[in-house]
Design brief:
Elements lengths: L18 H11 L4 H9 L15 H7 L6 H6 L3 H7 L18 E2 L2 E2 L7 H6 L14 E2 L4 E2 L43 H15 L13 H20 L5 H6 L20 H15 L3 H10 L4 H4 L8 H8 L23 H12 L3
Antiparallel strand pairs: 1-2, 3-4
Pfam families: TniQ
Protein name: TniQ domain-containing protein
InterPro entries: TniQ (IPR009492)
Length: 357
Amino acid sequence: MNSHRLWPILIPIEDDELLSSWLIRNALANGSDPMTWTWYFWGKWRAWTLDFDRYCPDVMLYRIANAPFDINTLRKATLLSIAANINSAQLNPKTNWNWVIPQGSRNRDRSTGLRCCPECLNEKAYFKKSWRLAWNHSCPTHKTILLDKCPNCGLPISPHKANQDNPDICICPRCQFDLRLAHSKPANSRALNAQLLLNNAINHEGSVSFAWGTNETKELFSTVHLMLRFLHFTCTHPATLTKFRKVMCLPVMEQEFIMGVSIEQYPPDWIHTLFCALDTLLSMEIKSLIKHLAAHDVTQKMMIKNKTNLTETFAFIASKLRSSETKPTTVIRARTPIKPKSKDEVDKMWLDIQRYL
């Protein structure tokens, strides 16, 4: 195949646009559909069952590189560089990555993966890289909580299923609901503040003062990831940390609510709820944070559920809290002094004993 052959219609990549979104829009503009379009360039490589927005091999990118969109431009449309900037662990394309929302694909059906802002779609119909990052729960422009499914039928957002019969990527392929008409809940300013802090840490490293004394982006994001897991724990275990939960204005959730699910799979409205509390913690110096946690009965065991993958910052915070191992208390009871019995009482007791001899 001639990878440099010009397409009949070439739609440019928008700022912050996902690689898949760009391919979908070009496929539809050229009278094709996403599946056929990618089959033409990539053959039997099952692109839509994989997450090529996370990582796309260079050999595949070369096949769709088309002036003025060279391979470097296409690489930037994937999530790899962002994920590498915020994850300390080596990234394996076959496993999930912290902070990157997994697609949960089976064939072409998805259980998670994309979020969107209806108002952004109304202004320009494309899907953004930032909508695949778990900490982005709200639109910073329109200050509304993002959607992660069709509000009419509940189908996860699936623009890759658009075709020439239904070529609009904003239309739900199952119920034909227009996502641009969806109502979005207003975002809390505190949740937006915490989201902005993390985005600034990525976009302007070196000119940003990181929270809790962290000195690099990876340390900050990994520590926040652990803190969110702790906040989620406080909400799903109502018998513990009642005092802390109340002061942080966190709700009690049912045990079965997203139990065993990773942060990356939490719905955006739940991330938004946790970020309201996170903003309060991020605003504190590390000494004040430790004092705040200790004052509300947070212990080391509650903070640390798994000793692997702890960051230096999070381990330090936990180490300053009370150990959850409580020493057994010894109860000392006052003893009543034994008074000697009289001779008559002893004689009577002796007679009683003799009856059994």
